[in-house]
Design brief:
Elements: E1 3-8, E2 17-22, E3 27-33, E4 38-40, H1 49-60, H2 68-71, H3 88-109, E5 113-114, H4 120-131, H5 138-148, E6 149-150
Antiparallel strand pairs: 1-2, 2-3, 3-4, 5-6
């Protein structure tokens, strides 16, 4: 797999920004700032097993009804578990149930294994962290899942 870096700088930007691209898809993978800080960016692509597994699982759980391409930018409050009218306790309970369902499907239904150093509790905590933030997107959840699980067929 080949990578290349492109430098983007706006006239009024305080910090130049570099993008590391994955060829041949040219999708941003990592944001690298000039002060050597980097941030993994969520990639919503059918070439990423975490994305496809998450989407198909959320779809079968009836958490979303959109096609794959449209689903990456849905926010957590667009999913059916997120009810603005629920109490914070009820919402926390619903989030915990969805996180546990996702973990169960990934491990028992889809053949995923936890990444090195990750256990059930850490995986649930990571998923709950994203599900709890109504501004996070499904692609952010996929990125988190990708860091917690080694999905079937991944190296």
């Amino acid at each position: 797999m080949a990578f290349f870096i492109i430098h983007f700088s706006k006239k009024h930007a305080k910090i130049p920004v570099y993008f590391l691209f994955d060829c041949p898809n040219f999708k941003p993978y990592k944001l690298i700032t000039s002060n050597n800080q980097s941030k993994i960016m969520a990639i919503w692509t059918t070439n990423n097993r975490a994305c496809t597994t998450l989407w198909s699982t959320l779809y079968s759980m009836q958490q979303l009804t959109t096609n794959f391409a449209e689903s990456g930018t849905l926010t957590m409050n667009d999913l059916t578990y997120y009810n603005e009218l629920s109490s914070s306790d009820q919402r926390a309970h619903d989030i915990s149930m969805v996180a546990d369902q996702l973990d169960n499907v990934f491990i028992n239904g889809r053949g995923a294994k936890y990444e090195a150093g990750v256990n059930h509790s850490a995986a649930i905590a990571g998923i709950v962290g994203v599900l709890s933030d109504k501004t996070k997107q499904v692609q952010d959840l996929a990125s988190t899942a990708d860091s917690l699980y080694q999905f079937w067929g991944e190296v």
